[in-house]
Amino acid sequence: MASITFLTLAAFATLAGPVLAFGRPYHHAGSKNCSSSLADFALQKVLSDAAPVFGNYEDVQINTSTWMREWADNTPLVHMNLPGTHDADTWNYSLATQQSLDHVTSLGNDGEFDPAFYRCQAQSMVKMLDDGIRVFDLRYAFDVTNTTLVFWHGPGLVSQTATVDDVLFGFYHWLDEHPSEAILLSFQYEGGTTEYASNDAGVQLELFNALTSPAARYYFLQTTGSIGTLGEARGKITLLKRFDNDKLPAYYTDALPGIHFSPANWTDNSPNITLVYNVSTSATAYIEDYYQPLTPPNATAEENIQWKLNATEAHLTMAATTHPDDLFWTFASANNVGNYPPITPSILALGNGSLTPDAGVNQRLVPFLEGLQGKRLGIVMFDFYEQPAELLPLFLSLLLPNNGSTSGY
Fold first, then answer.
1. What is the rounded (10 degree) CA torsion for 198, 261, 186, 391?
2. Three-state secondary-structure class, residue 238
3. What is the pLDDT at residue 26?
4. What pLDDT, on the 0 to 100 scale, is given for residue 62?
5. ω into residue 341 within 30 of 0, thus cis?
6. What's the CA gap between 144 and 124, in Å, rounded?
7. Disulfide: which of 4, 357, 373, 380 matches 8 by Cβ 3.0-4.6 Å?
8. Are 11 and 172 in contact (CB under 8 A)?
9. How deeply is 259 buried, as exposed, middle or buried, from its count of CB atoms within 10 A (0-12, 13-18, 19+)?
10. Which three-class secondary structure state does DSSP give residue 383?
11. 40 vs 23, 59, 149, 323, 379, CA distance in Å?
12. What is the pLDDT of residue 11?
């Protein structure tokens, strides 16, 4: 474990504080080293708690760990190609995960279901970071006891113990190790988790507290309503707010940084959403979130893949050719589990063997992306991004780093 810097240690003061508050700390010649060790132990504990969702942290340095260091500080983020993962926290969701949590989910009257309906990734989030992923789609709700915020995909509980706050500390520590990089986290309330769950004031207050803690105020970029330059965002998290605080007083909304994409303005299951996220500046996002192809009943996997691919390619073409100073956000992910037979996220992304001879959306995007060399595409969210192996490297290579100024890293 790498040693912790002073700023990182400060972020852990809230963890160490309660331990020391019960009595005067014992001072001796090595007390400074003991304090450093306590911070190390606190970090190890919180990373261990986060591991079922964030993954097992390792200090890995590969080229894609720091790909942003080649880019100039004055580069607007909206001019970059930023790879992301849809439902990033589902990478560890399997039959074994579901069965290990049966004693918990049974309290919420959840039945059993095919975990493939809700799993959208296969790599841990820390592996995603090292591979070059910079945008994460995270879905939260209360656990079955309605006390802590955890991660879900529909009724699929990812972990009962790894909280939103725990996972945030994983991102904080990774940024300490990779200060040239910028991360964007999209938070969205996940409905349909348990029978009586709702996005009530308790949920909204718990998320607010996690996003405004002393550590969060240090690591989240404290700007509102704008996406600035890479230099401003380095070493920080830009918050993408796909939630409302409508059950709380207005000042809670005003106190949160980031960019607000109200669910009320995010058209459901649409291939072409236009969302003004800052009325005073007319800052606009163009979004493709066609997450369930509206194919005829009993459509084949091949038909579902093609319908989704059509929407994704059309939006990427729009990103490459129009509105150069606006934000583009494209989801290459989808499913149609209500279809018969069900079309899982894996089938949409990767195909279904001989039934889809041209494989899935991911494989079919490769030749399309090869034709977009030098083009700005914006944020693109993938399921199972590591397949095929050439997909992510190709996406990252479409734009060459600019040379307007040095990054300092």
1. 130
2. strand
3. 35
4. 84
5. yes
6. 24
7. 4
8. yes
9. buried
10. coil
11. 21, 14, 25, 47, 35
12. 45
Strand partners, 135: 84, 184
Backbone torsion region of residue 19, taken as left when φ is above 0, otherwise alpha when ψ lies between -120 and 50, otherwise beta: alpha
1-16+33-54+74-264 CATH: 3.20.20
Contact by Cβ (8 Å): 140, 155: no
In the DSSP assignment, the letter for residue 257 is -
Q: What is the pLDDT of residues 36-80, one digit of tens each?
A: 799 899 999 999 999 999 999 887 778 899 999 999 999 999 999
237 phi and psi, to 5 degrees? -110, 125
Output the CA angle 64-135-178, nearest 5 degrees.
45
CATH class held by domain 268-401: alpha beta
* pLDDT tens-digit map of 248-278: 999 999 999 999 999 999 999 999 999 999 9
Is residue 324 classed as helix, strand or coil in its secondary structure? coil
Task: Report yes or no: 309 and 365 within 8 Å, Cβ to Cβ.
Answer: yes
| Proportion of the chain in helix, strand, coil states, percent, rounded to 5 | 40, 15, 45
Tell me the sheet residues that pair with 201: none
Contact present, 231 and 407 (Cβ < 8 Å): yes
Q: Compute the distance between CA of residue 10 and CA of residue 7 in angstroms, rounded to an integer.
A: 5
Two domains, one topology: 1-16+33-54+74-264 and 268-401: yes
pLDDT bracket for residue 23 (50, 70, 90): very low
- Token readout for 127 is 């592996």
* Lowest-confidence region among 98-112, 170-184, 191-205, 297-311: 98-112
CA–CA distance, 359 with 363 (Å, rounded to integer)? 6
User: What is the rounded CA–CA span in Å between residue 282 and residue 249?
Assistant: 25
Residue 115 identity: P
Q: What residues have CB less than 8 Å from 312, skipping those under 6 apart?
A: 288, 290, 330, 331, 332, 361, 365
Domain residue limits, the chain:
1-16+33-54+74-264, 268-401
* Three-state secondary structure string covering 214-230: HHHHHHECCCECCCCEH
Burial 140-151 (b: 16+ CB within 10 A, else e): bbbbbebebbbb
pTM (predicted TM-score): 0.91
Q: Residue 121 corresponds to which amino acid?
A: Q
